[in-house]
Design a protein that fits this description.
12 strands, 9 helices, two-stranded parallel sheet, Rossmann fold, single chain, alpha/beta
Length: about 280
C-alpha cells in the first residue's frame, strides 16, 4: 500500500506516521513542502507517486482566523479537497479526508451520529462541510473522518498554538486556580487513537463513506480539565464558568459530541486521556 499524507506537521498526521503498518509505503508532505491549494503541484505530485491512498490532514482550522479570512478558509478547506478528489479519480486512489464536529450547530442534547443533519454556524464549519460535499460529488472511493477537540503529544492544533490538554498542564505550573467553561460539550480525540482507527478500520475494511472517529463518550471542557488534574495528581482549583465569560469572535456550537453508527471499536475519552498523560512529561 502506497500512501500520501498532506498536512504532515499536524498532530493527527504525526500519529498517522508513527502508527502506520509496516506494509505501508509512506510519502508525507507539510504545507511548506506541498501547499494543498497549489492544485497543479498536488496533481503532478500524485501522478508521479501514484499512491493507492491519499490522506488529507491539511486544513485551515484556526477558527478565529477563519472568520477574518473566509476566502483563505474556503480555498484550503473547500476548494482544495475538490481538486484533490479530482486528482484521486485520475489515479484511481482512495481519499481519506479529515473533517470536524463543527459541521453541526450544537443545538442537539444528544451526541451526533454520522447521519445527523449538518448545520454549521461559523466559517470554519461552513468551509469544512463544503469540502465534504465537494468530495462526495467527485469521488466515490472516499472516507470522510470527523474528529473533535484533538490532542496529541506532537504537532500543534494551529500555527503558534497547542492543544487543550497541554495548555492545562502549562497553566497548572503558573496558577492554582483556573476557570474553565462548563457549558460546552464535545468528544475529546486522542490523535493516536484516531490514527489507529484510520489504519485498522477504515482503510483496511470499512465501506466508503463518512465516519466519526473521536473517542467514545463526551464531556465539558471543565470536566476534561478536572480529569487532567486528577490523573496528574495536581493541586489545582478548577472553577466552572459559562462560555460567556470568554467572548469569542465566532459562534461556538454548545454540543458537538460525536457517536458512530459503525462497528468501529473505540476507547472511552477518559481512558485515552490517561494513556496520553502517562507519556507526557509533567
Amino acid at each position: 500500500m502506497r500512501v500520501v499524507i498532506f498536512g504532515a506537521s499536524g498532530q493527527l498526521a504525526t500519529d498517522l506516521l508513527i502508527t502506520a503498518p509496516n506494509k505501508v509505503e509512506l510519502f508525507s508532505f507539510s504545507r511548506e513542502e506541498c501547499d494543498i491549494i497549489n492544485h497543479e503541484q498536488v496533481d503532478e505530485l500524485l501522478k508521479k507517486i501514484r499512491p493507492s491512498h491519499v490522506i488529507n490532514c491539511a486544513a485551515y482550522h484556526n477558527t478565529s482566523q477563519c472568520e477574518k479570512f473566509p476566502l483563505t478558509a474556503y480555498q484550503i478547506n473547500s476548494i482544495a479537497p475538490y481538486y484533490l478528489s479530482k486528482s484521486c479519480v485520475d489515479i484511481d486512489a482512495t481519499l481519506t479526508h479529515i473533517s470536524t464536529d463543527y459541521v453541526f450547530d450544537g443545538i442537539a442534547n444528544i451526541p451526533y451520529l454520522e447521519t445527523a443533519n449538518t448545520n454549521p454556524i461559523n466559517v470554519y464549519g461552513v468551509t469544512k462541510l463544503a469540502g465534504e460535499h465537494h468530495i462526495r460529488s467527485v469521488l466515490d472511493k472516499h472516507y470522510i473522518v470527523r474528529i473533535s477537540s484533538v490532542y496529541g503529544k506532537k504537532g500543534v492544533r494551529c500555527k503558534g498554538g497547542t492543544n487543550f490538554v497541554l495548555t492545562m498542564l502549562k497553566k497548572a505550573q503558573e496558577q492554582k486556580t483556573i476557570e474553565v467553561v462548563d457549558d460546552i460539550f464535545m468528544s475529546p480525540t486522542y490523535t493516536t487513537d484516531a490514527a489507529k482507527i484510520i489504519w485498522e478500520n477504515l482503510i483496511s475494511s470499512m465501506p466508503y463513506g463518512t465516519y466519526h472517529a473521536s473517542n467514545k463518550g463526551c464531556c465539558s471542557w471543565y470536566e476534561l480539565a478536572e480529569r487532567i488534574f486528577k490523573i496528574c495528581q495536581l493541586d489545582v482549583d478548577v472553577v466552572p464558568v459559562s462560555h460567556k465569560k470568554f467572548p469569542s469572535s465566532f459562534c461556538v456550537p454548545k454540543n458537538t459530541a460525536l457517536e458512530t453508527n459503525s462497528s468501529m471499536s473505540k476507547r472511552s475519552w477518559d481512558l485515552a486521556l490517561e494513556d496520553f498523560l502517562s507519556q507526557v512529561e509533567k
